[in-house]
Amino acid sequence: MPALALAIARAGAIAYSPGAMPTLLVPDRLTSHVAAGHPWLYADGVPAIPGARTGDLVTLLGQGRKPIGQALFDAESPIALRVLSTRRGEQAGPELWRRRVAEAWALRHATLDLEHTDAFRVLHGEGDRLPGVVVDHYAGFLVLKLDTPAWLPHLPDLLAALTETCDPRGIYFKGMSGSQRASDDPATAPRTLLGDEPPEHILVREHGMRLLVDVRRGQKTGLFLDQRENRALVRQVSRGRRVLNLFSYTGGFSLAAALGGASRVTSVDIAKGAIEGARANFGASGLDPASHEFVAADAFEHLSACAAAREQFELVVVDPPSFAPRKQALRAAEAAYTRLNAAAIRQVTPGGLVACASCSSHVTMDMFLKILRESARVARRALRVLEVRQEPADHPTPLHFPEGRYLKFVLAVAE
Ligand code: SAH
Question: What average pLDDT does the segment 328-344 reach?
Fold first, then answer.
């Protein structure tokens, strides 16, 4: 397969050669945590592994030095080990990657409406038991993102598994998540690894809604796929409403609202490119952008301007970026979420709808509902909750991995 060989060479990755597997004696207090399915072991909680290098597959040993699993080692990350398998006799390596990819692909086919949707997550890292690997599918193109360089030596085998199961038109590598990794490192720089270069804009379908995706310049892998079902919900409740979509990105919620019959949709995002993308998305669906409003501005300032102009909406969508990327930022984040949601709730007409989201994993659902209670109190409005949602089926999370549950979405009537 010459294309694959070329991709491997261009990936700059040295193929993994299994030697004697390093071992780690897992402290007793952590063995049940591994057995239950938690996918991480922190560097400060486990002994050092002499001689181990990033990318090594490590055998985890429990009491009596009995093997309890296998994990991928990262020498630099606070997450030293990502657990790959806890099943007896299961061997981490190309065959396991192949099985995991095939299982994930089958799960998407079993749970998603792929007749009308061709933009979805194929691999959601920990939730698909390939921790640290994210792969999204956009109309036949795969976009890969890694949380750890520990996967680089295994990349050729992972690409082979993806090619075999998904038969993609091309595989684009979006690089490493997190800013601490140098993006100018040729091994981790974004590029096409296999097959065709993705076009500048890939036209995808989401429950039949057409969206343009720029996988190179877009945020995440191009789209916020985790909001797909929530966009469908917004489409369902938008008929005849004036809609304000704050933090619109390329207008996913806006387009859903417009196609659902909203009378006028205002999209607000601080990024000019995102607003241009939103306008283009309206055009691609045959909607006249001139009938709607596109504003490149700060959402907080825009809400203040709406308040000053006494402008209200029958539906306000609030989907900000994470205000708490680190646990230490939680206090400040709670205050910011409250300020934002209170200001948004004030701009909802009496009896209108508000849809509030948070994508910070440090903010639990309970915390978010508390934030919304406080926001409603500050805005002097009563909220009646219609829907409370978390990640969709293509973003699975192990039950014993609450850290993986990051998305909260609440639709409510503001009295
Ligand atoms: N709702 C979107 C995703 C939103 S992502 C969807 O379904 O596709 C968060 C967006 O908030 C990003 O596009 C980012 O550019 C924007 N953003 C960040 N800070 C902002 C601010 N202060 N005001 C307005 N937009 C902001």
Answer: 95
What tokens were used for 300? 């907080």
Whole-number pLDDT of residue 324 = 85
Mean pLDDT of the chain: 94
CB proximity list for 158: less than 8 A, separation 6 or greater: 97, 101, 130, 133, 151
Check if 306 is active-site: no
Q: What is the pLDDT of residues 274-307, one digit of tens each?
A: 999 999 999 999 999 999 999 999 999 999 999 9
**Residues ≥6 apart with Cβ < 8 Å to 269:** 247, 248, 249, 275, 278, 295, 296, 299
Ligand 1 midpoint to CA 269 (Å): 5
Give the atom of ligand 1 at the shortest distance from the alpha carbon of 230.
Answer: 7
- Cα angle value 311/411/317 (rounded, 5°): 40
Ligand 1 site, residue 222, Cβ cutoff 6 A: no
pLDDT value at position 234?
98
Please spell the DSSP secondary structure of 293-362, one letter per residue: EEEES-HHHHHHHHHHTT--EEEEEE-PPPS-SSGGGHHHHHHHHHHHHHHHHHTEEEEEEEEEEE--TT
> Which of the four pLDDT bands, split at 50, 70 and 90, describes residue 345?
very high
| Residue of 268, 374, 361, 372 whose CA lies nearest to 323 | 361
Task: Determine the distance separating the centroid of ligand 1 and the alpha carbon of 247, expressed in angstroms.
Answer: 3
**Alpha-carbon span 9 to 5, nearest angstrom:** 6
Within its chain, how far is the Cα of 370 from the centroid?
A: 24
Q: Is 206 in the pocket of ligand 1 (CB under 6 A)?
A: no
Q: Report pLDDT digits (tens) over 207-241.
A: 999 999 999 999 999 999 999 999 999 999 999 99
**Above 70 in pLDDT, residue 180?**
no
